[in-house]
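tl;dr need the bound structure. longer version: we got a ligand (LLP) that a collaborator sent over and nobodys looked at where it sits. i said id run it. heres the input, straight from their email, havent touched it
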Amino acid sequence: MSSQNVFIPTLDQAQTITAQYGSPVFVTDKQTIVDRVQTFKKSFSKQTKIFYAVKANFNPHVLSVLKEAGVDGIDTVSPYEIALAKQCGFAPTQIIFTGNASSDQELKEVMQHEVLCNIGSISELERFGRLFNGADVSLRLNPGVGDGENQNVITGGQDSKFGIIQRDMPIAKALLSKYNLQLKGIHCHIGSGFYETDVFAKAVYLILEQAATFANLDFIDFGGGFGVRYQRSKDPINLPSFGNAIVDMVKNFEARNGKPIEIRFEPGKYLVSEATCLLSSITTRKSTEEKDFVCIDTGFHHLIRPALYGSTHEIINLSKTVGKKERVTVVGNVCESTDVFADNIELIDPNEGDLVAILSAGAYGASMSSVYNLRPYAAEVIVDGDAIALTRAPQSFDLMFKGLGFTQL
Ligand code: LLP
């Protein structure tokens, strides 16, 4: 299989899966994930390490595929993500914690896990120093530039809440020395879903300038954010050009530094998004004088990206390869008007009972799911050639209710 495919199951596969596990269901292709890890590794130099951003998809079976494929570590944002990474066999040194507005309690939990804290504000650094004098630490910087697939997922620049801005670096340095903190790494993450190298390269340059002012760093981490295709008509991101954009800058840094430095990335969506589709069934057709609706048996409780970010995931009617193309609006089954997957798209002869595939749903799909409307999480399966393995069971009412943790009436 090409390393650039967007995974779509065959109709046979889809029918077998839905007959066994019901609809809707997330279907992930193992080989696509393995291909992405390999492409990522090839695009950057050997000393580059991949710390997968587990927030994109925290299914332990997906983590296991990633581990087997060669990811070096895990980027986490909460103590429970750390616990999961450990459970999946990653050692504390293979995990980094990049918190946001972490409480003292949270920082303590992370330190109990013996995981490196990547701190993104002066206030947290001060509290961290008071609590853990002499500890190792990493700093998340805001390089002052950001990029991403839309405004909502940009995490650099003056409008962003993330990272320490250049103005505050003297304060950060003073705190490092006040509390005898050992700075192990410098980090940034400028946004999610970018395709072009220019802003990214600028961020790399600015971070390296900052890194050059510190001695004895173990690593520099440029975060994740590499874009994926929600539509197959879009060209895949040119990862080698990202590699090329940084190679000379890193070489210059190493020359100044007098020794090689470990470079880390934290891709999330790049590794998992295109490997998964959300399979769903058409339950209802209806129309107004303005719109022709195709209503399906999933909603923003399973894939919130269209409703939250206006993302346009390609949708295809798996059940029909020939037939009349119709212009339709695909909507979900949540009781909310914003539960729209795609407006004014073409589907081949969409009818009740047909199976549709919503593509590139492997990142921030299941991981951002909720039980709103008390609809269960979707089941998840991984396919590996002809083999189909259930990785998340359909959620019964009892299982859901137990998970909600309400006390006795
Ligand atoms: N590192 C850090 C510190 C991050 O905050 C993130 C994502 C990543 C790495 C991974 O970024 P990725 O490679 O997946 O773009 N829910 C949004 C994306 C939010 C990303 C948040 N941070 C979406 O569905 O587009």
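gonna send this back to them w/ a short note. The longest strand covers residues 276-287.
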